[in-house]
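Protocol step 4 of 6: record predicted structures for both targets in the notebook before any analysis. Target 1:
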Amino acid sequence: MRAVLTKWGQQFADAALHQVTAKVWRVEVGAQAYTLKRRADHATVWAEYNLLVWMKDRGLPVLPPILGEDHVPWVHHGGDVYVLYPFVEGSAGDDVCTTDFEKARALGKFLARLHACVAEYPDANDFPVQNVYNEVISWAWPTVRRCLTGPSRSQLEDIGKSIAEFATLYEGLPRQLIHRDAHPGNVVFVADEVVGMVDFDMVRTEARIFDLCYCATAVLSNCFGRGPVRESWDLFVQELLRSYVQVQPLTRSEGYAFVYMAYLVQVTFAAYYFDIGLDHRAEENLAVLAWLSDRQSVLEPLIDRVITSKERGLHAES
């Protein structure tokens, strides 16, 4: 790997390397830290690099990849593509819990700033268009149904009917570039403040509300085994959305879609785990899905109040 790193300069010749995953390494050069990733192709790296430079120029706390020896944001080695990122100092939000309301507010505010920024990006066509609803209908839900057993099957079949009825609302949701992998582990905090975000290699055009649902369900899944703690998730969602709409409004249709989009997220994860043989992880995601269904009647009016209270405030100001 040092042969790879020296393509960014000889200062990396004696770097310390720590493998994080099969495709990710932490790199240390003295007091400086970096993240090295192996990527599938350089076309997607170019798109990500240009977007991150554009975002950074507009004040977002993101760090583009470092240019290599050929003055491009990657290097080739052994037929593979490698990308080197500056390391964002702080603490990743992997342990954000449903009772961390200050972090919920920080996440909502940051995601609103991010969405407002990337909505103006002139080269959005450089990124794929995703339709998570079609993915669920064509693959994820049929996969889950084939694997369903036990007494929960009836409730989950009812959820499947609700997902089918979501089609028209989904098609009408506001769409733009989104992060697409906006779980708190990709957000860097100092205390309760967001100081950076990483992993923009999954940017897509998709329904804007997806990022908020993905973030919120990641927090719920993280704390789901802690019964009393998960009961605070409604309030976490309230604070996440309340801080978001202080920066950028959401439509009432997005508010109504929130729970259904959360269904799509959980079904997708369950299908993925069934496909790779981790049935216990799939069943954990289905337990979260069933819990969300039970909470829907509480969540929907709460979310609607957050969105409409902001609307009333805007009307009063005008």
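Target 2:
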Amino acid sequence: MTRLIKYAFLLSTAFALAACNETLEDIAPKAERQLPARVVQTMKAKGMSKTSPVMMRIFKEEGKLEVWKAKTNGRYDIIASYDICKWSGQLGPKFTEGDRQAPEGFYTVRPGQMNPKSSYYLAFNIGFPNAYDQANGRTGKHLMVHGACSSAGCYSMTDEQISEIYAFARDSFKGGQREFQVQAFPFRMTAENMARYRSDPNYDFWKMLKEGYDHFELTKIPPKVDVCGKRYVFNREAADGERLSPTAACPPMSQPESLLTAYRQYQAQYDIAFSKALKAQSTATRSETIAGHEEARLVADWSKRRARGEKVSRLPPNIPSPTAVAEAPQPASTPAVAATASAYTAEPASRLQNALEAVAGQPEQQEPAESTAAAVAPVPTEGAVPSPTPRPDASAERTASVPAPATGGQAPSLRRRIQNIFSR
């Protein structure tokens, strides 16, 4: 009897010790942690639901990752901004595996890319290489946004930050969102920043990304992104629903007239600001940027030799960027903003005031809405952005670990979707 009592005591002690050693991860798995109450309250105040769609924007030079969520009117508003703990490489896109560059461009994240058991606390794969990257011979894989504050080509956050960022994405998927967009930029695409890097070898690539950036700034709706002619194209629809090929020339395409009008106005204001910024750039500081495939190959080789234990320089090799004289563009001959703002407004100023004030620099005028019939949109010609020199073995290293976003099969058409958003 005494022996049984001893065994019982030992068993109860063991259970007690096991309970003491149980961690928070055993009780509440890190991938299921809920957003803080303060964030939930902010969402309610902004007219967002916990499971409404999300999108994210990354700005390298500023070191920021933003989370945006859809409001009840379909337009997005920022809900959180985080300081990026670490990102590797320089300003400029990722070219080749091993170049230590963090990607720039427009990427798609689906549920299968979420990793709740990451070695870096929590993570999601941003979807590199996408259709644009593959069409231009860019290679790499496993490019993530993750925790642990350690990066070799990824965007790394603290564990606390990634816990919230992961929760935003997880909840949106639970609400029915099938995929969300990640926009990664070298910097905020302002006239001042673009003028600073006017002579940079990546400038044409960044100018192409800027169109998608501008569309979001105007509409507060993630742009529809496609690839043709080895270029990104935004919010365009091919005639007769033709499917776009990333490597083939772009066919005739159209955009909603309202969007074209607003974008022309926005661009006219930008050209004026850009010209002024160029004149003030004599002492402007610039961050280091990557000089294309040639430098990317050098860095990739440096990384391989370093991994093999060979003696290499402390820092990766760098090719100095060439200097060039920047010329101011001629301002677009665009009708006055006040005369054309009505093509983009279909209701009182309270809905579109922020977007159109950004375009016009003045309060929008309430006028009857015009037709949103599509107009033929000029398509950038193939070659306007120089195609990077493909690596000799690029075809062998292409990766298909993440499927490229589909170009067809959109539910409502782009034209009808934009028209519905602004007529609510």
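Step 5 preliminary note on target 2. The mean pLDDT is 77. The first strand starts at residue 54 and ends at 59.
Proceed to step 6 after PI sign-off.
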